[in-house]
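Can you give me the bound-state structure? Components:
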Amino acid sequence: MRSAIVILYPRTPELPGAEDCDLDAFLAQYRRETTTLIWTGVVFGALVFHLTPILTVKIPWPAFGLSAKHADEHAHKIASTDLYLVRQLIFLVKLVAGLAWGQHPEVRRRMALPPLPADPGTWKTS
Amino acid sequence: MSPGEHIAYRSKDERDVDVEVDFVVVGSGAGGATAAVTLARGGATVALVEAGAWRDPEDYPSSAYGGMRDLMDDWGAQVTANRALWPVVQARTMGGTTVINSAICVRTPDDIFAQWVREHGLEDLRAPVLRAQDRVERELCVEEVPVAARGRSNLLAKRGGDALGFSDSHYMMRYAKGCEGSGQCIQGCRARRKQSTNLNYVPETRARGGIILSSAPVERVLLERGRAVGVTGRFVHPSTHAKGTRFVVRARRAVVVAASVTHSPVLLMRSGIKSPALGNYFRAHPGTGVFGCYDEPVDMNVGATQGWASTAFRVDPGLKLETLAIPPELVASRLSGGGTELMKRLTEYRHLAMWCHAVRAESTGTIRASFFGNPVVRYELDGADMLRFRKGMHLLARQHVAAGAKAVLPGISGMPYKLMANEVDKLAEAPLDPRRYIAILSHLFGGCVMGKDPKTSVVDASGRVHGVPGLVVADASVIPTNLGVNPQHTIMGLAATFAERLLDAPRAVV
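Here's the bound-state model for the whole set.
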């Protein structure tokens, strides 16, 4: 899943990529906190991402094994595919990765937004 | 009067909770909290039972991730079970969806009351509902979005709407006192400006002696000899989701269900309530956003999350137009594409304004319980509604251009990513397949609809379930038609009316 996310949100001169945004810690937290059903869906989405370069760049090789150029081309094409269910699965991966990417202080700084305080994760008990 | 107890999560090792009151209210959102406080003000003893945890603003998350985890029902992951998988968004927290919405206050339109009388035989609702809405507006400090909190996206929308001559183009009236424009409505207003019900009606219910149960999803309504006499369920830990001890809340006078459009019908089904209309006539305001790209930075997350609206098209073709700011976390997935092309698109973030529509759709769907007991929503727009949907997107695109946008991003699969200002009329021919769109069902109605005839409705004009004494429904699930405006005020007006009628009625009549 990590490699799919890194290909979908790569580092560019203008913006940090997902791998610059504490991705490993985020994924560990997400796995711990989300429901099994949602986690399964995201894992399945990442699997589909890796198994579909044959449909996009015509190379029978998983996305994690492609050259950087082909992987980037695959990421764009598979995220925009006409196959609805495939597009939805990739959307799910993009959504989860976007949660990690968009909340990072460096990304927010580039968007002229203040850093977010930590989520307290607390509730009223009395 | 001494304040009542707040009973939060209790583990399996602790003693079961057994409480008896006059009325038990299931759900603490717009309907449940309004019903509970009305009953408490009338001198009744009340227990309010909420499936989610009780979070005050200092407990609210800041990130979209935290919002999904802490405030949304099922992480906001519920989708319609049809060809197009459109999200069905509801909250699961004390205060319900009033915590995560934009606090938009719109009175029930007169034509809706007339339609309810004409098509559903619902007499005598207009006057009490409007009276209750008057009161709610005073109590929840309804005011127009302050000038300082409008933000550039809302100002541009007003400019675009005015330029196109929309007959109604206004800054919103909202349940928000001195909005600071922090752009955090969706994650809950940490600045305490938004008047969600966890900050007013729930604490007041407690202050009047009411008992509040949080993290307490109700499993069943208890029935004895055909009469509703209470509710039962198990506490669920807000973070680990571990099951806790059992609770039973007995109601001497009535059980009021306000668990949401998706959960109320399913709760009634699980409890053995039989009605041919139960779970039917589900309706919604499906909607989507159109981004405008502007030369100057818009910074849509500065200012009120939603601050401008137009009801000019509510009747024909059946749309409401609004602004909506979403954070970078969500824009990242909302923009199409991936890889370096997506990152290039994201560099435009500061120059984007997102405006959206809510379609007053006539299509209907159903709500049923899955094998695991959770709600399953089947709903898809028919051809006429998809035409409305497309027309709304075209209007929003034209509005962006009128406001000065150099291009728009329609977000429709199979169409160009970006349409320049002189190309927006291509949207008039956009595809009508719902799978082409990234849409959402935000305002939900039906499932336990009101009406005179028990064959086509679940409850009467006072929210009483046909043929089940002591059981009342008081949330958006009773609304039998599509309002075409934001429903919170209508839900509150109906819930207050139903609660007043409960107070007035002798037990045998409820």
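A couple of observations. Chain B has a mean pLDDT of 96. The two ends of chain B are 27 Å apart (CA to CA).
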